[in-house]
Specification:
The protein is α+β, with helices and mostly antiparallel strands. It is about 35% helix and about 25% strand. The longest helix is centred in the middle third of the chain and has 23 residues, at about 185-210.
Length: about 375
């Protein structure tokens, strides 16, 4: 399905005809075990599609409209699920899966509720019963989706990526990605991705429940099946950080970068995390401090791209924003003409730096 095909329909009138129903969302909330996630997902465009040819059996699919999904390709976020209508009234239409997929996984673990208001659907809920999880998708305006986002002006152009001296794990990852793109059939991709996503979801459940070590095991298992599962790589990095294995976070971040070298937000996560890691490495009774050259060299050696002092300073401002004070700062000039320092401000302890590391990995 082409990107813009999602918006094609025969009528602009509000309808609950499920022959080929399409719902566009620009925000969603995850609710697990009755607890709402605090994640900000505004701008995460998703498309929910319900199709039927006989009004008895329905197919429900969810698409990532923000770009091609790294696992499924062609924008598919949730593979098609076979469903039937369980309940419908003036307030909602509830569909639940039935039967199994080619791998034997039960479609009954999934359901979709279409919430009605004034004769049209104003929100959609995805139910994942086996995980006691719901994702509520709010209605978005498709005309807003392609408007350019306002981003801070970067006055220095990042230098080209340095690709020499790649370690063997990155070479293997690139070889797998090339084979995935050129030799793996869509059916094989779906089978592999479903197995990997299932393990990734188990890891997420354990992460949310505080079982970080078990979460790490599940994320690693997901990556053994599918090394380019970007969700599992980022979740593994977050889990290593949460468990205090800070240096282990570098490897999954490195793999993520080589899978998506053009992602500016991923680069910013990596640079911010590297800065905070270096501040912790040099933390004493007076706080943490590190030189620009130390951070720039660390990023180049571990991630094979170049950052700059100006870019790091911009990210320091971003790191400070949630605290309404400068918990990180920097010298305007070095002492006696030497190199200046990035520093923690008075009252910024190790725990605050660790909290910032978690926040940086959650940037979107």
């Amino acid at each position: 399905m082409g990107f813009f095909d999602f918006f094609k329909s025969g009528s602009n009138k509000p309808s609950i005809d499920l022959t080929d129903f399409k719902f566009v969302s620009d925000d969603h909330t995850r609710i697990q075990n009755g607890q709402k996630s605090n994640a900000n997902n505004k701008g995460a465009w998703r498309g929910i599609r319900v199709q039927t040819s006989d009004n008895k059996t329905f197919t429900s699919t969810i698409y990532n409209l923000s770009g091609t999904h790294p696992i499924w390709g062609d924008n598919i976020q949730m593979a098609p699920k076979q469903m039937k209508i369980i309940e419908q009234n003036d307030e909602k239409i509830f569909l639940r899966g039935f039967g199994t997929d080619t791998m034997g996984a039960s479609f009954a673990d999934y359901g979709i509720t279409l919430h009605k208001q004034n004769g049209s659907i104003d929100k959609v809920t995805l139910h994942m019963f086996d995980r006691n999880t719901e994702i509520v998708y709010s209605k978005g305006n498709p005309s807003e989706m392609n408007k350019p986002k306002v981003v801070p002006k970067v006055t220095e152009v990042t230098k080209p990526t340095v690709v020499q001296n790649l370690d063997s794990t990155i070479v293997a990852l690139k070889n797998y990605k090339q084979k995935w793109d050129t030799e793996t059939s869509m059916q094989q991709k779906m089978m592999i991705a479903m197995q990997s996503d299932n393990l990734n979801n188990k890891g997420c459940d354990n992460y949310e429940n505080g079982n970080t070590d078990l979460a790490i095991d599940f994320f690693n298992q997901a990556l053994q099946i599918m090394p380019i599962n970007s969700d599992a790589l980022l979740n593994l990095a977050r889990s290593y950080n949460k468990s205090g294995q800070l240096n282990n976070t570098i490897d999954p971040l490195k793999k993520l970068y080589h899978l998506s070298p053009d992602s500016q937000i991923l680069k910013h996560k990596i640079i911010a995390y590297s800065l905070l890691l270096k501040l912790l490495d040099n933390f004493d009774s007076d706080g943490g401090a590190t030189y620009p050259s130390t951070v720039i060299k660390f990023v180049e050696q571990n991630f094979s791209f170049i950052t700059s002092d100006r870019e790091i300073k911009q990210l320091i401002h971003k790191l400070n924003q949630p605290y309404n004070r400068d918990i990180l700062t920097y010298q305007l000039e070095g002492i006696f003409g030497g190199e200046h320092l990035y520093m923690t401000s008075s009252g910024t302890d190790r725990a605050t730096i660790r909290e910032e590391m978690r926040d940086a990995l959650n940037w979107n």
